[in-house]
Amino acid sequence: MFSKIYGLIGLLTVAQLPLQAQEVFTPQQVVYSTVDALRVRDRPALDGKPVGSLGKGDSLRVITLAGEAITVSGKTARWVEFDFDGRKGYVFAGFLSSDMPILAHTPAAWKKIQEKNSKYNAKRIKEAEEWAKANPDDQNCTPPSCYSTELFGWPEEYKKGCTQRKLAAIKKLMSTKGISAYEAVSEYGDGYCQGWQQWPMIEMNCGDTAGQKMPAFPLE
After folding, report:
1. DSSP-derived 3-state class of residue 20
2. Which residue, 12, 129, 132, 206, has fewest beta-carbon neighbours within 10 Å?
């Protein structure tokens, strides 16, 4: 049942469900679908014509908020207008988030991974502090950000989230604007693709990636 198009749920709005706090999105912000099939409509209303759908983890760049607020599954929100394959599309904002949803791990597995990242970084910070005490005249050249970078779990998330559809859109940007892959990924704004593309920089700057590897980014 949960795999059905979520746009249909709006027809069954239940006002008595407890409402959940809704994020406020701003123009040009990149946000992500949090459900498996989010209905895209040709206008900001439940009776708008369906023109496609977004999968979980698909990203979009907000143009503006539109339409009236509605309540769906306890979420009250308006609609987000965005560019959908060259035309205006509208999706219910209640099923969008500025955070990238976890795609490659179960919630239970991800909780353990977060604990592992926390313990590993705490261990590295302690080692760096001990090294500094033992070598007061030397400078630790490792960037501070390396001690807070979460290494475990993210390679799988980046690879799964940076889909062929996103790569095709990035490649189109490269072609139409005559820009590099790095510039196109930055302009596209998808966090999964950015994380994948920037992984070699983490390896170069931080040195220790705890054995976490990623294949080369598909676009150059």
Report:
1. strand
2. 12
Task: Cite the DSSP H helix spans in the chain.
Answer: 107-134, 154-161, 164-177, 181-188, 191-206
Report the 10 Å Cβ neighbour count for 162: 25
Lookup: tokens for 3: 């795999």
For the chain, the straight-line distance linking the first and the last C-alpha, in angstroms and rounded, comes to: 41
Whole-structure pTM value: 0.86
pLDDT digits (tens, 9 = 90+) for 23-33: 889 999 999 99
Where in the chain do CATH 2.30.30.40 domains reside? 6-97
Architecture of domain 6-97: Roll (2.30)
Question: Distance between CA atoms of 126 and 175, rounded to whole angstroms?
Answer: 47
pLDDT tier for residue 65 given thresholds of 50, 70 and 90: very high
Mean pLDDT along residues 165-189: 97
